[in-house]
Amino acid sequence: IASSKEKVLSLSSGEDYFKLLLSEEDRVFIGAKNRVYNIRLHDLQTASILEWNANDVAVNKCRMNSKTDCANYVRVIARKDGNLMICGTNAYSPLCRQYKLTEDDEFEKLREDSPGTAICPFDAESNATALYTGGKLYTATRAQSNGGGPLILKSYQDRKIRTTDGDSTLLNEPDFVSSFEKDDKVYFFFREIAVENINCGKAVFSRVARVCKQDSGGYFESWKNTLTSFFKARLNCSIPGEFPFYFDEIQSTSEFGQGNYKPTTDSGDRHDLIYGVFNTPENAIRGSAVCAFRYSDIASTFRGQFKGQSSFESFWLPVPWADTPKEHPEKCTNESDKIPDDTARFSKDHPLMDEAVKPTGGMPMLVFTSFKARFTKIAIDWQILAADKHYYDVMFVGTDDGRVIKAINKGQGSKVESVIIEDLQVLEPGKPVTDLKVVSNRADHAGQKLVVVSRDSVVAIPLSRCKRAKTCRKCVALQDPYCAWNSALLQCMSAETGLQNIDTGKHPQCKPDPIEKKKKRKPPKDDKLVMAAKTSSNDGCVCPEDASSEYSDKWRRVDLADTPEDLLKQTC
After folding, report:
1. Is position 105 within any domain?
2. What pLDDT score was predicted for residue 532?
């Protein structure tokens, strides 16, 4: 991959904690140590750099508190009325500023600094998410420098409305992942200690939560600055069976987009979707999975029953409909301070939905087991038209050892059958992928890139490497929606026409390859065991037919009936 890798940003030493904070149609903004990089997407060049160091007062206070890294890590960037709201850790004393971009693409400061507590995290490692919409800023982070005080905050003008402080039934040591808006609601993805499971032992569950955009606080004095429309639900990413195998800890999500988890010939057969990366706990069998969720399923879950407990020591059970307010509390209102008392109290005491949001397709799109690596990030190139006249969502998944895995689901109907197209070592081994961004230009195949971010570098790679396949058979065997064999030019090219068969990886018009001396196959490495979910066969482990193919000697397909222990032992 080194020959096709394009360096965008790089440091020779140290860590800048690069983080992709805002993505727009023509540019991305990357926060870093004492800097913000404004990068143009059409040529992947740095248009401008904002230098912003921690102020002296904050640095002195930081050092007095025996902190060692007293810098300003920019961790929040949001569009605000056409300008940029930028917030940094400021040596553990968060600050925010507003800037505009001049015609020369330079940063111009608009007003004085404002406090960034409860908007921006205190340090480079803490997770946070921010979204500006309708003149209001929504953030999810921690309000205390010691990592305490988790909250979801809505701020506008001089008002700040937040989740109740210190209530573990709302937020219990959460790690926030992402957020998006849809219609009259804002949604947040995070993982937290599951309060409903505490009687059975400590466990972390993945969540999606929502608040209404019109929420202006409650009626009572103690609720005036408290969100009344906060509800959350569990996200279920698991391998189905009598005893499902769960991937409980969400790590990242894709952007919210229009796609379809399965191939379709109808360009209009698209749904509001979001893909997520989920891991097993650190002390469990190491595994990762990608699950997709329809917005309609998320919305339906929030219209369902609630979960609650009758006493502190009792189990969490579904709340009977007879005990639920007649008008379902999930419905948004323009006058949240006039919600009936019984509804307001019910909402405050029952933030958790009973049903979990199930993955579309009923199972993960991709499952990965490894002794050494896990999935970290995901990006989707939505609905790519392949030469077989089907549309595919192409998944790019980063790992914590510097690799990017490219995959699709080729399964028809209710079947999920993923194809691993490529496994690329993009970063130095051991360096985690911290962000991914697809730069897709349908009119310019050469301009299509995947931006890969680590803590100390930003690189770009092509979305496809079709020309590496030198014969028709090898081109079709890629099963890559970007690639097709051009019979006139005798080349594997990025094209929507040509010879391709993503379902089987074989095409009758491809002539046999020239006879080559077969290379001795190396045994598969234990850190490249990936399974494509299968639902309709018991083939077990399937070895590639062409053992000499440079594309096909890394992967195994495993039946869903296998136990997690089987996944770790199975070999071709």
Report:
1. yes
2. 46
Q: Given a cut of 60, is residue 81 above it in pLDDT? A: yes
Residue 182 to residues 131, 179, 191, 256, Cα–Cα distance (Å):
12, 10, 21, 9
Confidence at 571, pLDDT banded by 50, 70, 90 = very low
Beta strands in 426-520 (DSSP E): 435-439, 449-453, 457-462, 483-486, 491-494
Number of domains into which the chain is organized: 1
Q: Quickly list DSSP for 369-406.
A: E-SS--EEEEEEEEEEEPTTS-EEEEEEEEETTSEEEE
Indicate whether 108 belongs to any domain. yes
Indicate whether 421 belongs to any domain.
Answer: no
CA–CA gap between residue 60 and residue 267 (Å, rounded): 58
Per the structure block, which two tokens stand in for 201?
A: 């032992």
- CA distance linking residue 362 with residue 415, whole number of Å: 9
* CA 476 to chain centroid: 30
Q: What is the mean pLDDT of residues 95-101?
A: 96
Choose the most confident range, by mean pLDDT, from 310-314, 404-408, 524-528: 404-408
| Domain containing residue 100: CATH number | 2.40.10.480
SS3 track for 31-57: EEECEEEEEECCCCCEEEEEECCCCHH
Domain assignment of residue 104, given as a range: 18-123
Q: For residue 364, what pLDDT band results from cuts at 50, 70 and 90? A: very high
Cβ atoms of 429 and 460 closer than 8 Å: no
> Per the domain annotation, does 13 fall within a domain?
no
pTM of the model: 0.88
- Residue that is written with structure tokens 């890139």 in the block: 449
DSSP 8-state code for residue 357: B
- The first and second tokens of residue 76, run together, are 């929040």
pLDDT band of residue 390 (cuts 50, 70, 90) is very high
Distance, CA of 28 to CA of 460 (rounded, Å): 13
Q: Are 229 and 211 in contact (CB under 8 A)?
A: yes
